[in-house]
Amino acid sequence: xxxxxxxxxxxxxxxxxxxxxxxxxxxxxxxxxxxxxxxxxxxxxxxxxxxxxxxxxxxxxxxxxxxxxxxxxxxxxxxxxxxxxxxxxxxxxxxxxxxxxxxxxxxxxxxxxxxxxxxxxxxxxxxxxxxxxxxxxxxxxxxxxxxxxxxxxxxxxxxxxxxxxxxxxxxxxxxxxxxxxxxxxxxxxxxxxxxxxxxxxxxxxxxxxxxxxxxxxxxxxxxxxxxxxxxxxxxxxxxxxxxxxxxxxxxxxxxxxxxxxxxxxxxxxxxxxxxxxxxxxxxxxxxxxxxxxxxxxxxxxxxxxxxxxxxxxxxxxxxxxxxxxxxxxxxxxxxxxxxxxxxxxxxxxxxxxxxxxxxxxxxxxxxxxxxxxxxxxxxxxxxxxxxxxxxxxxxxxxxxxxxxxxxxxxxxxxxxxxxxxxxxxxxxxxxxxxxxxxxxxxxxxxxxxxxxxxxxxxxxxxxxxxxxx
Length: 469
Known about the structure:
The protein is α/β, with parallel strands linked by helices. The protein has one domain (3-459): Amidase signature (AS) domain (Amidase signature (AS) enzymes). 36% of the residues lie in helices and 15% in strands. The protein has helices at residues 3-8, 11-19, 25-43, 51-67, 109-116, 159-167, 183-189, 222-232, 276-293, 308-320, 327-330, 336-345, 350-370, 413-417, 446-459, and strands spanning 46-49, 78-82, 120-125, 137-138, 142-143, 145-146, 149-153, 172-177, 192-195, 214-219, 262-265, 296-299, 376-380, 421-428, 434-441. An eleven-stranded mixed β-sheet has the order 1-3-2-8-10-9-14-15-13-11-12, sandwiched between helices. A two-stranded antiparallel sheet has the order 4-5. Helix 5 links the parallel strand 2 and strand 3. Helix 6 (159-167) packs parallel to helix 7, helix 10 packs across helix 12 and helix 10 (308-320) crosses helix 13. The model has no long low-confidence stretch (mean pLDDT 98).
């Protein structure tokens, strides 16, 4: 098996091969690391690669396998962790020179669960500075390149996770999502990504973004994400917002289907601009999926759609203003667009912020009332295909000092509302760049979103497609 074949092999196929001793954890980790070493200068998906530690853990995993010990569901599989997530054995640098070399004393619960299930962490993947934007370019690590086109945006803030999954750096990759940061890089890189229901996966430390940050899987297949979610999910005392319920049988019920379900389709949520090539692929993908899966698909304009843009921009700037403590020493070494956003948010007063929250919670209630009549909402994931990574806004769009949200209007509503939302690859532009379609479910129906995504994957398979690296 070549390093490419093994690097792209789904975890659901590789796990039984390891258990049956057809392949060893040492071979798995060593082969994936060999591929990373060969390709990484071109992709730049890692902020920190822990190759020696990974090989030590692989040898330990192999010894456990041979001893006949009870094995976890991810035994001997590789995983990557985003640079925003806490890891006690690796730096947590958040894509910023202000945090270079920063260390913490404990793993986040999600990291601990993955490792306890037998996964071997290869290292920390890149992020935009403090996870602030959807651009795979940050002062600490530079550009993370889209595997489908060098120099182009791989999406963010889970930039390295998306690029690593698309480049065949193993099967399992962790992302986090505060306004689309799992779904955007998955869209740009042509992979599957899920932002689960808020509270499904514990997030520690709990984010300061007024309950909008989610942790989710980023993989090439829906089944691999279902496997990963079954390990990461469940309540934890360090995150007071986690739900009491544990995960459903995501993997076992993946193929139950969604026949007879009702899906609303909106190309613009009543306000969003979408590039024509993206719109055409999303429309065709949605119609093919609905026809194949037996879903009723109806065009709608959600009445709450136009309320989102002002709220998103007000909150994004206000929440980024917490980073103003770094400006006196570090402003000239930070992302200048982030600096502009911080300064705009710093003028928001507490009365204004509380009034914003009242409007936001009314907006959220409207979304959930609307979903009483629908099983799913289908939209584009992002309005554009990948563009040069040195820009925060495509050249053919209106320019702004920091507002990249204008091309990502479909993701942040469900960070505020907490609904589960996935992106599935639905085709390529004429330039060969991936495009994603978003599937949003009712709050708590992560299983339904998995099943809808799996039905799409069966109708329009994508995982066999690989970038020419």
